[in-house]
Amino acid sequence: MTLNIIATAKQVLDPEAPITAYRLDNEAKRISADPARNIPPVINGFDENAVEAALLVKEAVGDAKVTVLSAGSSFAMDVMKKALSMGSDEMVLVQDPELEGVSDSAVTAKVLHAAIKKIGDFDLIVAGRQASDWDNAQVPLGLAELFGIPCISFARKVEVRDGLVLCERVIATGYEVVSAPLPAVVTVSNELGQPRYPTLRNIMAAARKQPTIYSVGDIGIGPDDLATKVTIQDLFIPEKQSQCEFIEGDDPADAGRKLALALREAKLI
Amino acid sequence: MPDPQGVLVIGEITDGQLATSSKELLAHGRALADALGEPLGIALLGDNLADLPNEAIAAGADRAYAITDPLLQTYQVDAYLAALHKLNEEHPPKVIILSKTPVGTEVGPRLAFRLDASLAQDCMEAEIDPSTKQLTATRPVFGGNCMAKVLCEGQPMMIILRGKTTDPLNADASRQGDVIAVSPGLDESIIKNKLIERVEEKEEGIRLEDADIVVGGGRGMGGPEPFENELKELADALGAAQGASRAAVDIGWVPYSYQIGLTGKSISPSMYITVGISGASQHLAGCSGSKVIVAINSDAEANIFKEARYGVTGDWKVVLPAFIQQVKELL
Description:
heterodimer; A: Rossmann fold; 2 domains; nine-stranded mixed β-sheet; two-stranded antiparallel sheet; 6 helices; B: alpha/beta; Rossmann fold; seven-stranded parallel β-sheet; five-stranded parallel β-sheet; elongated
């Protein structure tokens, strides 16, 4: 039996870009890329870890299919295709202007829930623990609740065996080995390890694959589902006033010595 | 179901004590409950809670819900969710607050979906609008580059609060409150996530989260060796704990247990000495509770200097040995 794995992947503004490359629209309560800067979006970093986890499970079990799922108002297709180039089998995009600027986890979870039902039977959903734009860290847990299935969060290792998903999950003092019956949701982050680089073979294979694209209507999402529960009232850039005292010396080593003296002066050591 | 009333703190217990983060929640919750003019409750979950309910009342609660069940002996997400769902049916609150801890960040969103509630994640502060009685909260977004003020709609309204954003109230043993026993009657069959093994990865020396001084290294260290040599030497001299930026752990120079940041550990030492750390907002989110940040970095424009109180620009290979030498002479 083929193991069906869904990996969720969000397209986000590049978190490595300086804040000046963002445009903050406090009227529409949105943050977007400054078109003049031409900085392309990226797949959310922890979602690349999720794709990696899905591919590792596929390699371990053999007979498995990895479907990458995303929802948004528009996609940079060459960016999203990286998930296919890494080795995923299929991609499903819920692409609809109705999803412009959505920052509410309840809405996103409902949209992904409906899309997964449309995709059909699944055994495992792997998701990044949070997206680097709104940092909500809620959608994967919400999916588990909407499907009424278990969720193992913060996994650094994922295995599927005998109808169970087994994970090593990160805790403050080490890790836990936890199992849950399939179907299940697993969240991952950078502890899982670096996502693989696309191979030339997979890049060429991905070039021939076309994503399946749905509108929100196609998956049965109506206006009620799009009503937000948490509304943004204000967006602002926090003021940061540097109070740094730069310690200088005759040379860098002297500066190092003077730093120690300054810390002593301030009774910090 | 009775009418929703008051504010509910989801308490956490560490080593048989009410967690400091939960005492902070009680201080936050006290202000919210007073703004609503309604009581402040705390949910305590365990198989035997001993005197914890009274400790919670001394720390600011009006009502302590003592939820006891054999399945609550240790944290299990399925048991916690079922117990809190049951509590919500019997004693529904208007507002629920949790800590940004491993438990809070797992239980909070799932409980919110289960209750069809609104939840604002990772909040720095929260308040009740005096006229509308609605909850607003301020939270960092885009890795802390931007702040969002958000409004929670519907009921219950839920927030997860970042640690160290407020001080606990002074414990007052004379405070009066009610202890309300709740028996959720949990059935073993609800437990889906089964704990097979818990492995403690021993950290040498002082725990990062508890350390009074932390020494952290980043990508600028250039390899694993400086973490074992210079940075360790400095940490040992100061009795400090060692940490690292996400960049350094992702490359594999040090274990993930060193990671300080938004998704790593949150530290709040009296002094945090950073070497070769540029200060990505992702990292700063984990060390913003530090009283004093000291930065050694070759790039004078590095973001870390915007947060630092003391800074030296220069090659750490030259600055750090001289700094360590002088520190040792002063101690």
